[in-house]
């Protein structure tokens, strides 16, 4: 089975579970507790995806346009892989789900499968918010060099596949800020409306910020990186203190990028919420 087909199969399985969750959310009304539960589960996905990417060295040819030399395509192997995978997944209906955001949205083919009626939880303005260009830049220029080893082992297609898994997991988590913002707005509409009408980003930032919650998230993802990423050996205590991905890097990813970018998505959404 090709890597693209394997990713598509995994997506279809995950999509089925996602539809069940969203239908349940619609029936019971979305609550902040439900949203937080989803965000906690998404932490697992992000940590595991980073661990899987760390199996491979940097593999620079994956990102070098001069290496691929694909007829009719001028970009890198990574860009080719992402665009082709997103095209297949678009045909399978991935981007009909409001939680999913493509990295190359232009000219994606339409879905070929029956449309699923997702709950209309978000304001229509949510469709215009996609910060994947920022996420792409952060991942390749800041995050990736910090947790993979230098070198080249020739596994370029697998490297691109693991990169895409990381990108999609991080993107889903950050864009979930739209749902976070919607739930907070519904719960505290009287506090949010004046700031939205005034287009007051500063006040919205203060309303959205809970420092104790953010600190707990950073500590939790670091602990997950320790737990998921330790070497397990029988007959001894393993390599204590040696992890597949440095927990400090995972915590830093949340501190420096995931939490701030999620907040930017929340604010961008709220500023459009009363349109």
Give descriptors for this structure:
single chain; 275 residues; mainly alpha; globular
Describe the structure.
This protein is mostly helical. The chain has helices spanning 3-28, 32-53, 65-68, 77-91, 132-147, 156-175, 177-187, 189-197, 201-208, 211-228, 247-272.
Question: Care to give the gist of this entry?
Answer:
The protein is built from 11 helices and no strands.
Write the layout of secondary structure elements.
Layout: H1 3-28, H2 32-53, H3 65-68, H4 77-91, H5 132-147, H6 156-175, H7 177-187, H8 189-197, H9 201-208, H10 211-228, H11 247-272
**Major sheet attributes:** none
As a whole number of angstroms, the C-alpha radius of gyration is 20 Å
Average predicted confidence as pLDDT: 90
The helix fraction, in percent, is: 55-70%
Number of strands: 0
Strand content: under 5%
Question: Which descriptor suits the 3D outline?
Answer: globular
Order of helices and strands: HHHHHHHHHHH
First-residue to last-residue Cα separation: 47 Å
Name the structural class.
mainly alpha
Unreliable stretches, pLDDT < 50, 5 or more residues?
6-28
Number of helices: 11
């Amino acid at each position: 089975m090709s890597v693209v087909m394997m990713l598509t199969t995994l997506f279809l399985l995950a999509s089925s579970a996602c539809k069940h969750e969203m239908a349940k959310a619609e029936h019971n009304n979305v609550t902040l507790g439900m949203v937080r539960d989803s965000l906690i589960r998404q932490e697992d996905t992000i940590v595991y995806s980073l661990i899987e990417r760390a199996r491979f060295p940097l593999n620079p040819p994956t990102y070098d346009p001069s290496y691929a030399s694909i007829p009719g395509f001028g970009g890198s192997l990574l860009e080719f892989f992402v665009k082709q995978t997103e095209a297949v997944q678009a045909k399978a209906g991935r981007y009909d789900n409001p939680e999913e955001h493509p990295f190359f949205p232009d000219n994606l083919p339409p879905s070929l499968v029956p449309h699923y009626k997702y709950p209309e939880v978000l304001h229509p303005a949510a469709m215009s918010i996609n910060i994947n260009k920022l996420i792409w830049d952060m991942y390749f220029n800041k995050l990736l060099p910090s947790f993979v080893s230098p070198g080249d082992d020739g596994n370029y297609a697998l490297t691109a596949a693991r990169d895409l898994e990381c990108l999609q997991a991080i993107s889903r988590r950050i864009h979930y800020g739209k749902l976070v913002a919607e739930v907070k707005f519904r719960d505290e509409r009287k506090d949010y409306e004046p700031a939205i009408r005034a287009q007051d980003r500063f006040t919205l930032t203060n309303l959205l910020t809970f420092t104790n919650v953010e600190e707990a998230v950073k500590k939790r993802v670091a602990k997950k990186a320790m737990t998921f990423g330790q070497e397990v050996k029988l007959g001894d205590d393993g390599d204590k203190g040696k992890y597949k991905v440095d927990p400090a890097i995972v915590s830093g990813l949340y501190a420096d990028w995931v939490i701030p970018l999620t907040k930017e998505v929340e604010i961008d959404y709220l500023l459009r919420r009363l349109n």
